[in-house]
Design a protein that fits this description.
Organism: Botrytis tulipae
Number of domains: 1
CATH class: Mainly Beta
Structural class: mainly beta
CATH architecture: Beta Barrel
Strand content: 35-45%
Strand order of the largest sheet: 1-2-3-4-5-6-7-8
Number of strands: 8
CATH topology: Lipocalin
Protein name: Lipocalin/cytosolic fatty-acid binding domain-containing protein
Distance between the termini: 18 Å
Number of helices: 2
Radius of gyration: 16 Å
């Protein structure tokens, strides 16, 4: 990725993926501001081979379910374009339920034709780059014992299609590697 925008000189503070079963909050975690999640997020980087080899234009749109009080259940609309069918857009809906005891962590339940798939999702880091483009590092993993769905992944999501600037992406990568995962 090439960026012509000014580059940020930032450090990134990661939390390790939480234990969704124990629901114990990392005391050093700073939760995202209330309602910060809502709106469109573009996947700009991912460890999930399926997405970078077979899809493009992966977008998640988050909104509260009804007029929930934060943290509340969220609805999500996922859309993507298969590289093999560039004229098509696939969509999937889901409901995300907050995980008790954890900030910025949810149990995601797909609906419709994907209703047999659920996973846990948590933010590992979040912020904005030098251009004030919001980003989040998202970790998702299948539920224990799941036999369908994709393996665990780490992804950078951004409010903008082009993602955070190169220096921020590099800072995220370094922080992730320092946390113990070189992929």
């Amino acid at each position: 990725m090439t960026s012509h925008r000014s580059e940020s000189k930032a450090t990134v503070k990661f939390r390790p993926p939480p234990s969704f079963i124990e629901g114990v909050q990392d005391k050093s975690w700073t939760p995202t501001p209330e309602n910060w999640l809502y709106g469109s997020w573009y996947m700009t980087h991912t460890s999930q081979q399926y997405y970078w080899e077979r899809t493009k234009n992966f977008v998640i749109q988050y909104a509260p379910v009804m007029n929930g009080v934060w943290p509340c259940s969220n609805q999500e609309l996922v859309s993507l374009t298969p590289l093999s069918q560039p004229e098509r857009i696939y969509t999937a809906f889901g409901i995300d339920f907050p995980v008790a005891g954890l900030d910025d962590a949810w149990l995601c339940q797909c609906t419709g034709h994907l209703s047999h798939i659920s996973d846990h999702v948590a933010f590992l880091a979040w912020g904005a780059d030098s251009q004030n483009v919001d980003w989040v590092v998202l970790y998702s993993t299948p539920l224990p014992g799941a036999t369908v769905g994709l393996p665990a992944q780490v992804a950078i999501m951004s409010r903008e299609r082009f993602g955070p600037d190169n220096s921020m992406v590099e800072a995220i990568r370094k922080a992730l590697c320092a946390a113990g995962d070189s992929d």
